[in-house]
Structure formats: C-alpha cells, structure tokens
Amino acid sequence: MSSRIEILNEGGFRSDGRRQYELREMTFDSTAQAGADGSARVAHGLTEVLVSVFGPREARVRAQTLHDRASIHVEATIAPFSSTSDRRRRGRGDKRTLELAATIKATFEPVVQTSLYPRSQIDIFVHVLQQDGGVLQASINATTVALVNAGVPLADYVCAVTGGVHAAAPMLDLTSLEENDLPHVTVASMPRSGHLTLVSMETRLHVDRFEEILRLAGEAGPVIHKEMRAVVRQRTKDLLDGMGKGLRESNPAEAMIEDE
Amino acid sequence: MRPPSPSIPEKDFFFSALDQALRLDGRDFLEARPHSLSFGAELGHVECSLGKTRVLAQVDAKMVRPEPQRPFEGLISIHCELSPMASTEYEPGRQSDEEIALARMLDKIFRRSDTIDREALCILAGERVWHLRIAIHALADAGGLLDCASLACAAALRHFRRPDVEVVGANEVIVHPPALRAPVPLALHHTPYCITFACYRAAPEPSAAAAKGAGAGTVAGQTETAPRVLLDPAGLEHRLAQGMLHLALTPQRELAVVHKAGGLPLAPGVLMGAVQVAARRARELEAWLDVRVREDWVRKKVEVR
Amino acid sequence: MPVVLPGEVIQTQHKTIKLGPGLQQISNPEEKTAMTVTRAGTLEQNAKGNQFWVEGNSRRYVPAAQEPVIGIVSARQGEGWRVDIGYAHQASLDGLAFEGASRRNRPNLKVNSLVYARVSLAHKDMEPELECFDAQTRKAEGFGELKGGFLVRCSLKMSRNLLNPNYFLLPLLGSRFPLDTALGTNGRVWISAKEVKQIIVAARCIEAADPDGGGMDQNAIKKFISTLDL
C-alpha cells in the first residue's frame, strides 16, 4: 500500500504544503439554497458538500411517524462528477451512499431534540459535490450548520474531523491522496462536553496510535466549532440587518450579538 | 408487522437493574455470553453460537480470471443472508437495513482490513486467481449478531483449506485433489475479532450499587457519573441500548474497525477503556479459536501410507 | 398419555364427545366416532373419557375465549386500545371494559403499557377482543394495568404449567421471597417482587424450567437457585 508520493517530507510538510496538524481551508456558506428551511455548503479544501434541511414537517409516509418524537430522514447522493478516480453514477441502492446516510442519521438522532416535535419528520438531504478526502467529515459539519440554520433545536454542535497516521506521525484533515495510503479515523465530537458521538475507522491501526489520534481530533473539534459559530453568527447578523434596516440604533438584539 | 417495542415495565425494570449493576441474565457488565463452534464435514464450514445467537459461515474457492486492473490479486466476496428464520424482526424479500449494515461491517472487518493475503490467492498472473466466497447465514438472532458472524467468519477462514495447485509450463494449471496432496490453508495476515458494547446514560444519582459494580469489573476510567458500558448486549439490552460501539481488533492490539455511529456521546477515556477490554477479549478468542481449529484438523487428518 | 402425531386416527366408543385443540372429527360411515390428530403432542382425556385434547408446546399464541392474557398496548384506537397479545393480529380492548369505567371516567393507558386481560371474543374471522373485568359482575377480578415489575416471555406450555396450582415452581419461589405474578396463557408472565434481584432470579428460573428452554425439574431448579445471588 505504499505510494510513490511522499506523504510527509523531511521538512515536516505534507504533499499539499500543510503541516502535520494543519487543517485545510474551511468555507461555510449558509445561504446555499433558498428553497430549503436551512442549508449549508461546506468545503474543506477541495471537498465540498451541500446539505439542505426541510422540516420539522408532516411526514410523507404516515407509517413512519413516531408517536413520541420526530423521525429523521437522511438521503445522501454522491455526484458522479465529484471525484476523478471513480466517475460512476451511484444509484439509490448504492451501499456507500446508504451507509453515509445511515451514519449521518445515527449521528444526529441523539443531538437533535426530536421529542419536541412528535409525529413529524425532519428531512436532511446531503449532496457530495466534490470529493478530496474527508467526505463524512464535511457532510457532518455541513449538516450541523444546515440544522442550525433551519432553527432545529440541537443539544450541541457536532464537529467532525479526520485524522491519520503516517509512520507513527499523526496528521489531521486528510486529502484523498493521504486517505488512500494511511489508516484514518473520522471523529465527530460535541465541543461543549468533548464527548464523541461518532468514531469510524476502517483500516488497521495500533491501539496506542489510535489513542493519539483520538486526542488530536478532540483538540481539532473546538477549532472547527469556532469557525461554525462565526458563520452562524454572521448569518444571524445579516438577517437582523435585513429585518431592521431603519432600527439599527435601537436594536438591543443586534448589540448583543456584536458584544460576543 | 414490526414486533412491539419493549413495554414500559420492561424498560423501567431494565434500567433499575442497571442502576444496581445487575444484568437480566446474571452476567457482569463486561462478561460475554458463552460461545461455541462446530465444524462441518467440509473444510470452511463452521457453525458458531454466542448465547442463543447462531450463525453459519461457509467459505469456498473457485478459479476465475482476475480483474484486469489487479492481475496479481485474488477476489474475495462476502455474502450475508438475514432471513426471517433468524428472528421475527426480519422480513422476507428486500434487503433490510440490518442486513446492509451487517454486510458492510463484515466487509470492513475482513476485506478492507487486509485480513487475507490477496496476492497469495494468485495462481497465474492475469490468467487465474482464486475467488473466495464467504457466505454468512444468520440462523438465530438473539442479539450480538455481528460479533457472532465475525467469529464464525474468522473460524471459517482459519478452517478452510484450498486445494493445492501447480503451474506447469507457461499456462497449464494442475489442481491436486485433496486426497492426493494436503490442501493449503489460506494466508491470513491477522484475524480480527469483532466485539460489541452497548452504552447507557449514567445513573441519575451516583448510586451505591455503581460502586459495588466496580468490583464486578467495569471499564477502566468509568467513574460513577460516566455512562455504563455493557459487553456483548443481548435481547432487551440490545433493543434498549442508547449507543452501540463495535470494535474489531486483532490479538496484536491492532484496531481493524472502529464503528460508533451516533448514539450516546462518550468521553474519549471511556472509549479507550472499552478498547482495552476488547483487546483482552480478542486475545482470549484468538487462543480459543486456535485450539479449536487445530483440534478439528487433527481429527480430520487421514494418514496415507 | 400417548404421544400422537398429525394424521393419526383415534377411535372411541363414546357417542358424544368434545374435542379440544389439536383434534378434528372425521365423518365415518360406520357407527364409530373417529377423529384425526392435527398437532403433535400428548393425547389427553378427561376422567369420563368423552373430552379429548392434545397437549403440545408451541410459541405462537392463538387466542381462545375466557383465557387470561398479558398484552402490550400498541396504539390508541377511538374509545379503546389496540393490544399486542402475541397473536398474528392485534386484539382490541374497549375503554369501557374496566371496572367502574364510564363514558366520563375511563382509565388512561399509555402506549407500551402492560395489561392483564381476558379474551372475551376469539373467532377465526374476527379480531380478538379483550376485557379487563368480569362481564357479569363488572368487577376487576385482578385484571387491569400491570405497573412496575417485569415481563418474562416463555413457551405456551410453560405458561400453562405455571397456571397449574400443582406445579412446583411458583410455590418454590414463593418460599424464598414474596412475589406477585400475573400469568397469561399467551406465553407471558408478569412478576413483581420487592428487590430487583429477586425478580431476576424468578425470571431466570422460569427460563430454566421452561420445557422449551432449560427444561430443569424441581431438584435441578433448587440447585440452580442456590447458585444464584439472592
């Protein structure tokens, strides 16, 4: 499984010029889709995911309603043009997309306060637009921002990050080139408590190395959280500005937001 | 029709028992159900049971042409079948979500973690390779199906032996029947064992019983307010679990798969505690499996004079 | 009692007989009364020899009128509830079929709560119906919602055994600690005791004594209890 490309050179730089623990540039666009109740387009470097959230609304299929809480329905699609290596069209039955959807659903079920909306349904649509490693990480982060935008009550943010190990040297936020060669772990944490909601690893790794990555990922969580909060705050501010153009001086809510 | 969810008294009782560090079947928190194996007449045919859960695994190999992109590698495919026979929860027809999840997990544990040396399955580069087909049938599901299936699968891979082959000249392959030449075991890099934990929210008030439970063996790093972690959940424990954690480890303390999708958030310390417990159990399972497979091989061996 | 298998023909001298589960009468041109066995089990008959039935063991419950059952409320339906009793179909329980219930004052059962009820209607073409009182006296007679405790599932034979006052298990458990039980013929037994531990012991003993599970007899159960932590 060794590649010809140097993953980490002697100077401590990775193939795209980053340091070991450096994250790729993150962009969050929370105005991605006007038709949805909440949406977000999140990019980690070249990986880009668009998530739209609808609901809570009445369930399409009556049989799926739960009498004491809302059900969460996740649908994921991976665009055929999203990666260079594998340009096939993935249908509805594709195992990888189904698993992505199931993972996102399971991650957010305990976080979303579903018991506030009995007999309703929250739909989350995930579109992977570009892949360059960390698809699950980007999807989870995008879903968090989209849910916040939709005003769905959450217990906390969920921040996901990928970590890998190259010859005993741990690194964060892998590109697909690194993902193909290194054992990697995706960790989603709740920044307030530092607890982990999702840990997913599919390649062999020694227990001690794993512990190290877990610790690093725990440290990366708050960084992503900070970015997300900034975006959500900016979006709220924009909305407020739009609402109260003439009332700017006398708006206490806005003053509060700028205070933070 | 879906089976009804556990009734309110069942649920309440389960959690009050948990508060007193008791499990319904009398096990300790980190005690697994008894497991057993029985081998069939054919090599690679194994039936494994874990408590009342039973799984049949069957490995067979046939010669095929390799994929053009990978001329030196054999093929491996894992097929899972969860029929309504295993439990009333499964419906006939369409693949259920559980079946997809099981198939994906087994695929990760045995195929993606490079358990089997694929290059050793090559007979003639670009022309002939072995295609290993692993069929998993769930016979009865009383919880912990994944653990049981992975144990059955590991045992079947250890038990299986392919016929010896010989390449003569440029592209002539001779297959020696097992009666003439001893069949060859598969080249396995390691054997992963899947171990499942169920997690439950901490007791509302740190009770005295939780402290007592510490003696009965709780996950290291589990303080009184930490969530409770049960090894090998069965039946009601499975259905009432607030979070599940699947770990696949090799006896060499290497994690092959970590799968904790959502559910109850865990502190990293609790997770690592579970990993340590699982590592110990993987070593125990390895030693046990080794003995069982060897016993069966000795029993099967026929001396030719 | 002889073990019989489906298809066997049994003849009797009696002219008027009553057949229980597992038997079917066949028309016979001769004057004799004959029946075929439709289920495997042991053939039982009453002292007079004019009532026959086959005692077998199965797991799927088929309701019969007047049998006590334990059900799980699965949904509310109009004035009553739909209750799962382990049969192929849900049973219905009317909101007024409780002691002292009236249009104004109906009991409030939540979804997923347990009820101890009697089958009031069992017909192969209709949904079974339950009641939580005696229709004549309108008294509860022990039926109603079961609160607390724990539900144990066992085979149908085991639940019938437990209902038999001469069966050893419940008196044996009762000699160790006080316990309340509600016995359903649908393979469900509700147990309540003071301590969680005691309920667990009772549940494990029922499982161990179940002819479909451990199949232990009285002495084995006694030994088994002594190994448990009480």
UniProtKB/TrEMBL annotation, chain A:
<dbReference type="GO" id="GO:0071028">
    <property type="term" value="P:nuclear mRNA surveillance"/>
</dbReference>
<comment type="subunit">
    <text>Component of the RNA exosome complex. Specifically part of the catalytically inactive RNA exosome core complex (Exo-9) which may associate with the catalytic subunits RRP6 and DIS3 in cytoplasmic- and nuclear-specific RNA exosome complex forms. Exo-9 is formed by a hexameric base ring of RNase PH domain-containing subunits and a cap ring consisting of CSL4, RRP4 and RRP40.</text>
</comment>
<dbReference type="GO" id="GO:0034475">
    <property type="term" value="P:U4 snRNA 3'-end processing"/>
</dbReference>
<dbReference type="InterPro" id="IPR020568">
    <property type="entry name" value="Ribosomal_Su5_D2-typ_SF"/>
</dbReference>
<dbReference type="GO" id="GO:0000176">
    <property type="term" value="C:nuclear exosome (RNase complex)"/>
</dbReference>
<dbReference type="Pfam" id="PF01138">
    <property type="entry name" value="RNase_PH"/>
</dbReference>
<dbReference type="InterPro" id="IPR036345">
    <property type="entry name" value="ExoRNase_PH_dom2_sf"/>
</dbReference>
<dbReference type="InterPro" id="IPR027408">
    <property type="entry name" value="PNPase/RNase_PH_dom_sf"/>
</dbReference>
<comment type="similarity">
    <text>Belongs to the RNase PH family.</text>
</comment>
<dbReference type="GO" id="GO:0003723">
    <property type="term" value="F:RNA binding"/>
</dbReference>
<dbReference type="Pfam" id="PF03725">
    <property type="entry name" value="RNase_PH_C"/>
</dbReference>
<dbReference type="GO" id="GO:0005730">
    <property type="term" value="C:nucleolus"/>
</dbReference>
<keyword id="KW-0271">Exosome</keyword>
<dbReference type="GO" id="GO:0000177">
    <property type="term" value="C:cytoplasmic exosome (RNase complex)"/>
</dbReference>
<dbReference type="GO" id="GO:0071051">
    <property type="term" value="P:poly(A)-dependent snoRNA 3'-end processing"/>
</dbReference>
Automatic annotation (TrEMBL), chain B:
<dbReference type="GO" id="GO:0034473">
    <property type="term" value="P:U1 snRNA 3'-end processing"/>
</dbReference>
<dbReference type="GO" id="GO:0000177">
    <property type="term" value="C:cytoplasmic exosome (RNase complex)"/>
</dbReference>
<keyword id="KW-0963">Cytoplasm</keyword>
<dbReference type="GO" id="GO:0071028">
    <property type="term" value="P:nuclear mRNA surveillance"/>
</dbReference>
<keyword id="KW-0689">Ribosomal protein</keyword>
<feature type="domain" description="Exoribonuclease phosphorolytic">
    <location>
        <begin position="31"/>
        <end position="163"/>
    </location>
</feature>
<dbReference type="InterPro" id="IPR020568">
    <property type="entry name" value="Ribosomal_Su5_D2-typ_SF"/>
</dbReference>
<dbReference type="InterPro" id="IPR027408">
    <property type="entry name" value="PNPase/RNase_PH_dom_sf"/>
</dbReference>
<dbReference type="GO" id="GO:0000176">
    <property type="term" value="C:nuclear exosome (RNase complex)"/>
</dbReference>
<dbReference type="GO" id="GO:0016075">
    <property type="term" value="P:rRNA catabolic process"/>
</dbReference>
<dbReference type="InterPro" id="IPR050590">
    <property type="entry name" value="Exosome_comp_Rrp42_subfam"/>
</dbReference>
<comment type="similarity">
    <text>Belongs to the RNase PH family.</text>
</comment>
<protein>
    <submittedName>
        <fullName>Ribosomal protein S5 domain 2-like protein</fullName>
    </submittedName>
</protein>
<dbReference type="GO" id="GO:0034476">
    <property type="term" value="P:U5 snRNA 3'-end processing"/>
</dbReference>
<dbReference type="InterPro" id="IPR033100">
    <property type="entry name" value="Rrp45"/>
</dbReference>
UniProtKB/TrEMBL annotation, chain C:
<dbReference type="Pfam" id="PF15985">
    <property type="entry name" value="KH_6"/>
</dbReference>
<dbReference type="GO" id="GO:0003723">
    <property type="term" value="F:RNA binding"/>
</dbReference>
<keyword id="KW-0269">Exonuclease</keyword>
<keyword id="KW-0963">Cytoplasm</keyword>
<dbReference type="InterPro" id="IPR049469">
    <property type="entry name" value="RRP40_KH-I"/>
</dbReference>
<dbReference type="GO" id="GO:0071035">
    <property type="term" value="P:nuclear polyadenylation-dependent rRNA catabolic process"/>
</dbReference>
<dbReference type="GO" id="GO:0005730">
    <property type="term" value="C:nucleolus"/>
</dbReference>
<dbReference type="InterPro" id="IPR037319">
    <property type="entry name" value="Rrp40_S1"/>
</dbReference>
<keyword id="KW-0694">RNA-binding</keyword>
<keyword id="KW-0540">Nuclease</keyword>
<protein>
    <recommendedName>
        <fullName>Ribosomal RNA-processing protein 40</fullName>
    </recommendedName>
</protein>
<dbReference type="InterPro" id="IPR012340">
    <property type="entry name" value="NA-bd_OB-fold"/>
</dbReference>
<dbReference type="InterPro" id="IPR004088">
    <property type="entry name" value="KH_dom_type_1"/>
</dbReference>
<dbReference type="InterPro" id="IPR041054">
    <property type="entry name" value="Rrp40_N_euk"/>
</dbReference>
<keyword id="KW-0378">Hydrolase</keyword>
